[in-house]
Amino acid sequence: MSGLMECLIGCLIGWTVTGMNYAKLNGYDIANGPGVRVSLFVSGCRHHCKGCFNPETWDFDYGRVFTFDTYQRLDDLLSFEHISGLSILGGEPLEPENNKTLTVVCKSIKEVYPEKTIWLYTGFTYEHVRDLPIMRYVDVLVDGPFIESLKDISLQFRGSSNQRIIDVKASLERGEVVLWSDDPVFERRKW
Ligand code: SF4
């Protein structure tokens, strides 16, 4: 049994995980955060942004139930040395139906893979979600709804210019929003 599975089972003893569905678990994603990442698209979103790139995931019953087998698959994918971390998208990961399960998952991942980063995409603003327990385990938050009139395909790792890429740990420490910055080698002029 892998470290992640042991850790997850430990976390889940005495703790009931609410049902969460997911649309996709990707083992090779280079579009949603730096490096090669595992990405998890969860189901369910009440924001209903106009022009949403993934409207099928608004339905909380879309896709498959996230089970222990899914944990195992996630562990297998994250264990590869070339994987930089996990990106969680949707749907809306911070809807109450998803947030509870993802808090356990993120806590476990951070304990087993402390060197791998967790990016989380949400339609809520940082100010709205910064006090959630899951934020202790999230390294970078891409926040805010997708606004079609602000769509810009040249933006890195986000769809519309209102969305911010936030360094969560630095922001919590300083008590103000600190934007994440990419390695200068990869940084683009639009930042
Ligand atoms: S928050 Fe994301 S998934 Fe939800 S409607 Fe907006 S763009 Fe679509």
- Percent range of helical residues: 25-40%
The general outline is globular
Question: Between the first and last Cα atoms, what is the distance in angstroms?
Answer: 43 Å
Evaluate the radius of gyration. 16 Å
Average pLDDT metric: 90
Poorly predicted spans: none
Sheet of most strands: 7 strands, mixed
Which structural class do the helices and strands define?
alpha/beta
Strand adjacency order, main sheet: 3-1-2-4-5-6-7
Give the tally of structural domains. Answer: 1
Q: Compute the number of helices.
A: 5
Describe it for me?
- The chain is α/β, with parallel strands linked by helices.
- The protein has one domain (3-187).
- 26% of the residues lie in helices and 20% in strands.
- Strands 3-1-2-4-5-6-7 form a 7-stranded mixed beta sheet.
- Helix 4 links the parallel strand 5 and strand 6 (140-143).
- The longest helix is centred in the middle third of the chain and has 17 residues, at 96-112.
- It is globular, with a radius of gyration of 16 Å.
- Iron/sulfur cluster binds at residues 45, 47-49, 52, 54, 57, 90-92, 123, 145-146.
- Iron/sulfur cluster (SF4) binds next to loops.
Write the SSE topology.
Blueprint: H1 3-12, E1 21-29, E2 36-42, E3 64-65, H2 68-78, E4 83-89, H3 96-112, E5 117-121, H4 126-129, E6 140-143, E7 164-167, H5 168-174
Parallel strand pairs: 2-4, 4-5, 5-6
Antiparallel strand pairs: 1-2, 1-3, 6-7
Helix pairs in contact: 1-2, 1-3
